[in-house]
Write a structure and sequence with these properties.
β2 and β3 form a beta hairpin. With 673 residues, this protein is α+β, with helices and mostly antiparallel strands. The strands form 6 sheets. Strands 6, 7, 8, 9, 10 and 11 form a 6-stranded antiparallel sheet that branches. The protein is built from 23 helices and 21 strands.
Length: 673
């Protein structure tokens, strides 16, 4: 290319727009010589007669395997370079046109306030003084058409990207506006500052800034518009609002309306808010909207509150959403949620964002939602703010609220500070904060007692046969090979395990294991069997009860761990007598007939319980068992169950009801026949 501004920026911008990573850009400026036909003749020294400075660019991107995509990339880069050439070539005429408009305002002042006209002239002079990068200019006439007001292009007036095109006679973007919005073109004001609906292909990405200067006829009516498209320069964004025409008056009036003493804290805070207000918004917002917004921002000072301030574009091409939220809560994921909510609320076609993170306790996020004129739906601003605030709630916020609601501030507050950062991301992803409250109780129990803490539960909407089981263990995790046999021998199928390391502040770390279980019998009431199961599992885990198939009777027959010990002891005694069937078969038989297993325990109690022994009850219980045995079709199972009845009836006494000084049963069971 001929050496000119914006080449590298514009090419790189187009490559990135197409989603390609730029690995390398080399862009030397070389002085060359060309022949009369434009062919390269060789290199030349700087200043050598006939030498031309040219830009050479070598751009390396990630591999593009698709030939059609490569062709499209080449065509788009060529289109962008053509735009750059057009803009750079017409830059001087566009700047001259702005100075001409400025001079014309002085010679033929429109029938408006002299102060407004003078301020607008100074604003145009400020733009021309290296504060605006011109991309396009065109002059329009205001005309009446069948469809309503229109803007007709003045032939030959187009410059830059708005150069005249064959067959184009009217402003297409203006013609797409609803009649009510097009009617605003007749309003007796002088300058329109907004964003166009076209993205820049030159210099930097983003939507082009739109400066419209209305034209007036001899009768004092609006008759057309001078339209400038471009981009504010970095100098425009770094300048103080009080040094920029139009803005200085807008800012001054807002400060005056606020009425704060000049040297007061509120006045200084408000001045800072205005100085750091999004510059594009400051150019476009009306004085009334600006005053309401900045005073609302001032009320947020030092407060961890969430607020949203909304502003519609004059022509409804976008909605600006200025969000203030606690800085510690802000994440990229949260910003994406906000954008999705806002695009949905305004039926937008897309959105852009800008984030300001400063020493303030609040983060500022400006989300601009692109909309279709006349199609923005009705909405409730307060409800929209509540939706955005709800999206910003963290898991930790829900935990604090749930703990306080469940336990009160006295207990909930300290527990929140202890556990706010204790749960890992995987746990927060899998469980809502309300589920953490009972888990915190389990963790506290495990830390205080030094024992494991457990909880058998059924999730809401889970299948009747589905259960979950949480095991909380101090120190290291519980190997799955240790827990799995215990659960399976209690008649459960383990389908998954999820371990989580919980680290309470100031305490030993704890592991929470969450097991997914399936019951063999969906009719089992887990609430009824929960206490029996948890007691039995704890005993097995701590080694005070045996880990064998008899433990299936806890859930199947709803027997306590102590009652299972009775049937286990008699089963072992049968084996000592030389009973030919294996212990595994005995365990399987009792599990297959849980009702009879319960009746065997009831017979044992009727014979030996010191508080409720009753010989008549025992005889009736034995008779009921023999009646139930008539329905047992498997002869081997019948043999096992009848043998149980026989040894229980042959028993003379037992140590089952002997306890120690603390009321605990002995760790073994003995009986005499």
């Amino acid at each position: 290319n001929d050496d000119m501004p914006f080449l590298v920026d514009s090419v790189q911008m187009e490559v990135l727009r197409q989603g390609l990573a730029v690995n390398l850009i080399a862009h030397p400026i070389v002085t060359v010589q060309r022949d009369a036909g434009g062919r390269l003749a060789g290199l030349a020294r700087d200043g050598e007669r006939g030498g031309v400075r040219e830009s050479l660019m070598h751009v390396e991107v990630e591999r593009v395997a698709d030939a059609a995509r490569r062709s499209a990339l080449a065509a788009d880069v060529a289109r962008v370079l053509a735009d750059v050439r057009t803009v750079v070539g017409d830059w001087a005429p566009m700047r001259a046109k702005m100075l001409e408009v400025m001079s014309d305002l002085e010679r033929n002042a429109p029938p408006l306030s002299p102060d407004d006209v003078a301020e607008t002239r100074e604003f145009l002079a400020w733009l021309a003084d290296a504060h605006f990068t011109y991309v396009g200019y065109r002059c329009h006439d205001l005309v009446e058409r069948e469809q309503g007001v229109g803007l007709a292009i003045v032939p030959g007036s187009g410059l830059g990207i708005l150069r005249d095109r064959a067959g184009e006679t009217h402003s297409a973007s203006f013609g797409q506006l609803p009649p009510a919005l097009r009617g605003q073109a007749k309003m007796r004001d002088l300058v329109i500052i907004t964003k166009s609906n076209s993205r820049s292909t030159v210099h930097r990405p983003g939507y082009l800034d739109y400066i419209g200067i209305k034209r007036y006829d001899a009768a004092g009516n609006v008759c057309g518009e001078h339209r400038f498209l471009g981009l504010y320069t970095s100098m425009a964004y770094s300048a103080k609002p009080t040094d920029i025409p139009l803005l200085r008056r807008k800012v001054g009036r807002v400060l005056e309306q606020a009425g704060f003493p000049p040297q007061s804290h509120s006045a200084k805070s408000l001045t800072n808010i205005l100085a750091t207000y999004p510059r594009d918004e400051l150019f476009q917002v009306s004085e009334g909207d600006l005053a309401r917004t900045v005073l609302g921002i001032l009320k947020l000072e030092g407060r961890q509150r969430f607020r949203v301030f909304l502003r519609h574009d004059l022509y409804e091409r976008f909605v600006s959403c200025l969000i203030y939220a606690p800085r510690e809560r802000y994440t990229t994921e949260l910003r994406r949620k906000w954008q999705a909510i806002l695009v949905d609320a305004f039926r937008g076609t897309g959105s852009e964002f800008a984030v300001l993170l400063s020493e303030s306790s609040l983060v500022r996020v400006l989300v601009t939602v692109r909309t279709q004129p006349g199609r923005i739906p009705a909405y409730d601003a307060e409800e929209l703010e509540r939706r955005l605030a709800a999206a910003s709630r963290r898991w930790e916020d829900d935990l604090a609220e749930t703990l306080t609601r469940s336990l009160g501030e006295g207990r909930g507050g300290p527990l929140y500070h202890r556990y706010a950062s204790a749960f890992p991301a995987a746990y927060r992803e899998d469980f809502p904060a309300r589920s953490a409250v009972p888990d915190i109780a389990l963790v506290e129990s495990a830390l205080a007692s030094g024992r494991v803490a457990i909880n058998l539960y059924r999730p809401v909407d889970a299948a009747p046969s589905a259960l979950r089981f949480k095991l909380v263990h101090r120190g290291g995790p519980v190997p799955l090979s240790n827990a799995l046999p215990m659960l399976e021998r209690m008649g459960l199928t383990v389908i998954e395990e999820r371990p989580y390391r919980v680290s309470p502040a100031g305490a030993e770390r704890v592991w929470v294991h969450d097991y997914g279980l399936v019951l063999p019998d969906a009719e089992v009431d887990h609430e009824e069997a929960r206490g029996l199961f948890e007691d039995a599992f704890l005993r097995v885990f701590e080694g005070t009860a045996e880990n064998d198939g008899f433990n299936r009777l806890v859930l199947a027959a709803r027997l306590s761990a102590d009652e299972v010990v009775v049937l286990r002891a008699y089963g072992r005694y049968l084996r000592q007598l030389g009973f030919p069937l294996s212990q595994a078969f005995i365990e399987q038989t009792l599990a297959a007939h849980p009702g009879i297993a319960r009746m065997l325990v009831a017979l044992f109690r009727a014979r030996f319980d010191p508080a409720a022994a009753d010989d008549d009850l025992a005889r009736r219980q034995a008779g009921a068992i023999r009646t139930a045995l008539e329905k047992v079709t498997n002869l081997s199972e019948d043999r096992v169950l009848r043998q149980y009845v026989a040894v229980i009836e042959a028993t003379l006494r037992t140590s089952f009801w002997r306890v120690d000084g603390e009321g605990r049963r002995r760790p073994y069971l003995s009986f005499k026949l």
